[in-house]
Amino acid sequence: MEKIAFIFPGQGSQTVGMGKELYERFDVAKAVFDAADAALGFSITNMCFNGPEDELRKTFNTQPAILTVSIACYEVLKQHGLQPNIVAGHSLGEYSALVAAGALPFGDAVRLVRKRGQLMQEAVPLGEGSMAAILGLERQIVIDICQKAEAEFGAVQAVNFNCPGQIVIAGKKEAVEKAVEMLKAAGAKRAIMLPVSAPFHSTLMKPAAEKLAAELSNIRMSDPIIPVVANVHGQIISKALDIEKSLVEQADHPVEWEKCIAQIVEFGATTFVEVGPGKVLSALTKKITKEIENLNVEDSISLEKTLDYFKEVN
């Protein structure tokens, strides 16, 4: 029997209108949106469906919005009899993965990621931090150059190891800009400044990580019922205490996405389903491994395509 991995997207995958089709078609999806609105005390549903885009792009709105859409997609898949053997999520997506694995109640998760977004934004004032995607350089070269830039210009680190040849750096705005110049000089094919509001996963997020630890201490985590692969080390975590620790570390440590996918492949998963808005992770997965089937579910068309695939293979 083939093993199935569900992977959940992070920030940057949001679009106005996301989740609306599934909300209108499936009661289980509507129930997720209703639960999110009740947990937050305002309509994240309305923001997902109608924007405005600049509000949806604010970190403390983006995070609960993507989580809600992802879990709505997950519940629709579950209703159709599709369950994963292993899960992972990119950054914010790790919270969706933990909900799917039964380790974190949805209501707690949606409140927690809104707070996480607020803490991340407060850690570094708007305009003081930035992030950039570096294409076409090896991991160690990017790490070494960031260390040189940090010694001279201030905090900057490699923070997302997304796939071979795609690494994201983050830190103080000037330090990131200087590091980008140095990385281009070292042979980077491209360096793209990212439209984000904070330097996520960098050491500048330490104050957010410390406050997040206090928030997490008030939430009752459970041991996951299926394996979850953690961002911080790309290994399977199976205990509630380890999950809490990894979520705190994740806030100010790099996302080891390439290692996460390698771990899922080693586990034996041959089919990956990206569950939630966009296809960012599907594109990364294809660059990491060619040996697997890539599917996604974000709307009616992608849902039918995915369900058809599983009908054929079974």
What is the gyration radius calculated from CA atoms? 19 Å
Unreliable stretches covering 5 or more consecutive residues:
none
**Which shape, going by the Cα principal axes?**
globular
What's the number of domains?
2
Structural class by helix and strand composition: alpha/beta
Give the N-terminus to C-terminus distance in angstroms: 9 Å
Helix residue percentage: 40-55%
Q: Average pLDDT value?
A: 96
CATH class wording of the largest domain: Alpha Beta
Describe the structure.
The protein has 314 residues and is of the alpha/beta class. It has two domains: 3-123 and 204-313, 3-Layer(aba) Sandwich (Malonyl-Coenzyme A Acyl Carrier Protein, domain 2); 129-196, Alpha-Beta Plaits, CATH 3.30.70.250. The protein is 52% helix and 17% strand. The chain has a six-stranded mixed β-sheet with strand order 8-7-2-1-9-10, sandwiched between helices. Strands 4-5-3-6 form a four-stranded antiparallel β-sheet. The protein is globular. The model has no long low-confidence stretch (mean pLDDT 96).
Notable traits:
314 residues, alpha/beta, Malonyl-Coenzyme A Acyl Carrier Protein, domain 2, Alpha-Beta Plaits, 2 domains, six-stranded mixed sheet, four-stranded antiparallel sheet, 14 helices, 52% helix, 17% strand
